[in-house]
Each structure stands twice: as C-alpha cells, then as structure tokens.
Amino acid sequence: MSAKTLLIVAHASSPNTQKLAQAAFDGANHSDLDVTVILKSPQETQPGDVLAADALLLGTTENLAYMAGLTKDFFDRCYYPVLDKKQGLPFAVYIRAGHDGTGTKRALQTITTGLRWEWVQQALILQGGWQDVFAEQVAELAMTLAAGVEAGIY
C-alpha cells in the first residue's frame, strides 16, 4: 500500500509564519509516520495538488479580520475544480492572528462547508504577540493530522 499524502498549504509571509510552516512540515514528517508530506505556498498550489491529497492542512495569517489574500486566491483557483471530487477531504487549519482570528475562522468555515471538507478539529488560532509555543502547537496539529490519515481515521 502506498503512503497517503498530506498537503500543507501555508501562507508564510514573515520569518515567524515561516517557522510555523516549517513546524507543520516537520511535525507531519515524524519518523514514526509513513505519510508523504508536501508543503506549498498558496500561490504555488494548484487544483491537481488538492486532488492528489488525502488530507490538507492550511496555514494562514489574519489580515484585516480575514484570511490572507493569497489564501483566498488559493480557494478562488481551486474551489470549482475540486468541488465535486474532494468532498469529505480531512482538513485542519492554523491561523496566525494578531487579534482574535474569528473573521478568518468564519470565512474558512463558509468556504470549506461549501466544499464539504471534513474539519478534523477546531481551528488552531495563534493569537496575540509571537510566542515560541505557537510552532510546537502547529507541529502537534500536523503530526496528529498525519497520524490520523495514515491510520485511516480520517
């Protein structure tokens, strides 16, 4: 049986959000897991990448109480090509939010409800000033998602 694929789509526009993207990649690539992990930016990600994935982890910043523009562009380009083909896709998200992240979370819930993707847990909202523990939380989220995909739980 071939390894399952976890696609990480991470908007990493700053050194700290780059740390989060790397933490997600490293967490999902845990040595005990047999999952193919692909890390891409939103602008690099194409519908074919989503179609080839068994699960998706999305990382975005909160900009003006909404997801990053490049994250929205990812959904604009990929929504209809994957709509009928990836219903039930296991999905998780982390939001780097200077404030509360609720606008971004709400927008992502609306879009992914339309796609009929399966949230595997509540959005991880990393609020306020930067804390090193954010990277640990993202790594744990990615590892949990990868383990669930590998085990067939999702």
Give an overview in words:
The chain has 5 helices and 7 strands. Helix 1 runs parallel beside helix 5. The mean pLDDT is 96.
List strands and helices in order, with pairings.
Elements: E1 4-10, H1 15-28, E2 35-40, H2 47-51, E3 55-63, E4 66-67, H3 69-82, E5 90-97, H4 102-115, E6 118-119, E7 124-127, H5 133-151
Helix pairs in contact: 1-5
- Reading the helices and strands in chain order gives EHEHEEHEHEEH
Tally the helices.
5
Number of beta-strand segments: 7
Tell me roughly what share of residues is in helical segments: 40-55%
Oligomer: single chain
* Rg estimate, integer Å: 14 Å
C-alpha termini separation: 17 Å
- Overall pLDDT confidence: 96
Shape: globular
Structural class category? alpha/beta
Uncertain segments are none
Strand content: 15-25%
Strand count, sense and barrel status of the largest sheet are:
7 strands, mixed
Brief write-up:
The protein has 154 residues and is α/β, with parallel strands linked by helices. It has five helices and seven strands.
Considering the chains and any ligands shown, give keywords for the structure.
single chain; 154 residues; alpha/beta; seven-stranded mixed β-sheet; globular
